[in-house]
Amino acid sequence: MEWVKGSAIGRGSFGVVNIAKPKNNSEEFPSLMAVKTSKVSDSASLQNEKLVLDQLQDSPHVIKCLGDEIEERNGKKNYNLFLEYASGGSLADKVKVSGRLPESDVRRYARSILKGLYYIHEKGFVHCDIKLQNILLFSDGQNDVVKIADFGLATRRRETSACQMRGTPLYMSPEILCGREQESASDIWAFGCAVAEMVAGRPPWKWSPESDVCSLLLKIGLGEVLPEIPYDLSSDGKDFLVKCFSKDPAKRWTAKMLLTHPFAAVDLFDQNDTVSSVGQNGDDQARVSPRSLFDFPESISNSTETTPSHCTFSLSEFSPESDVSPAERLRQLAGEEPTWSSSGGWETIRSVEWFSADGLQEKLESMEFW
Predict the structure, then answer these.
(1) Per the database record, which ranges form the Protein kinase domain (predicted)?
(2) Are residues 153 and 195 in the same domain?
(3) 304-313 pLDDT, tens per residue?
(4) Strand partners, 156
């Protein structure tokens, strides 16, 4: 496929996201796409995203993967991942512009996200980085449709160990920060944080640039307090979030259970909207170890409280046999603000061969990322 690259529309720990379009009209590809690009040597998370998305393409609530390639230019090799283009941006963008969202919209978005999470979990995966920045907005001609995106940290259930931590601190569940295995319940905690953020217009944890990040992580991981539930949320909404914020992951409601809650009740939207079983493989255990990347979301607060902007935490290597306490574990999280380059204008990219999923699987299985 020959394609044309447009201006940058986003950046992440993996690299940059650009608008892209096929050079020639084709029924196989849409007129506009999003392309994530990184150096081949730094493409582990993008390759992991491709492998995961290849197995999650049957849900209308998960972003579609359109293919990948390795591009060589000026003696350098880049890895490109092609995805659906979300013209509406992310839910984080919407909240940043609009502030607090109407509860009716929050309930509709929450149900769509839950249906996506139910599908992902039934397929045996954990997303590991649910947040508003990773929920993208599409239009079906009448309403906004949301889809779950950014599967770079996603993994099979029950394959993480106590020395692996993945996600964004303000959305991390207590069990992750205390070194327990990352399971589907962790996604539900993060989802609850996202719902609270849509309602309040800011993250449920109070934080300011002057605050100590370590104290915040200790508070989430070891404290007794829960994320702040918006005071003006309906009683159904408050109860819904309580079900998401159980400190004990075994008592936290699942996506399937939450879909039956009055806050996300089916009869509020579409009488024909049902949830069906979609796959199994819940106990599959692939051995893939993506890097631990922790980037705070941009500030979306309309008050003086802000969230850390574009901070990346790298996790020190921990051994499951280590005597390091959970508190010391959190204190050892540290990071530096990354430096990103920008690109603009339209640039023609020559065609290259597409990697097969099997080829990427072999490459991933031969790598270890910490």
Answers:
(1) 3-264
(2) yes
(3) 333 333 333 3
(4) 125
Residues annotated within a binding site: 36
Interval 92-139: pLDDT, tens: 999 999 999 999 999 999 999 999 999 999 999 999 999 999 999 998
SS3 44: helix
Whether residue 99 sits in one domain with residue 81: no
Contact status, residue 348 vs residue 23, Cβ threshold 8 Å: yes
Distance CA 99, CA 115 (A): 25
Please state the domain count of the chain: 2
Domain with 314, as residue range(s), is 91-336
Q: Are residues 255 and 154 in the same domain?
A: yes
In angstroms, the first-to-last Cα distance of the chain is 33
Q: Give 200's DSSP letter.
A: H
Contact predicate 258/264, CB 8 Å: yes
Give the number of residues written for the chain: 370
Note the Cα 6 to chain centre separation in Å: 24
Asked whether residue 203 is assigned to any structural domain, the reply reads yes
* Contacts of 261-269 spanning 24+ positions with Cβ under 8 A: 261/236, 262/236, 263/107, 263/110, 263/234, 263/236, 263/237, 263/239, 264/107, 264/110, 264/111, 264/114, 264/240, 266/111, 268/107, 269/108, 269/111
Q: Do 234 and 241 form a contact (C-beta atoms < 8 A)?
A: no
In the annotated binding site for ATP, the residues are 36
Ramachandran angles phi, psi of 84, nearest 5°: -55, 145
Nearest to 208 by CA among 335, 351, 305: 305
Residue 370 maps to a domain:
no
Question: Which residues are tagged catalytic?
Answer: 129
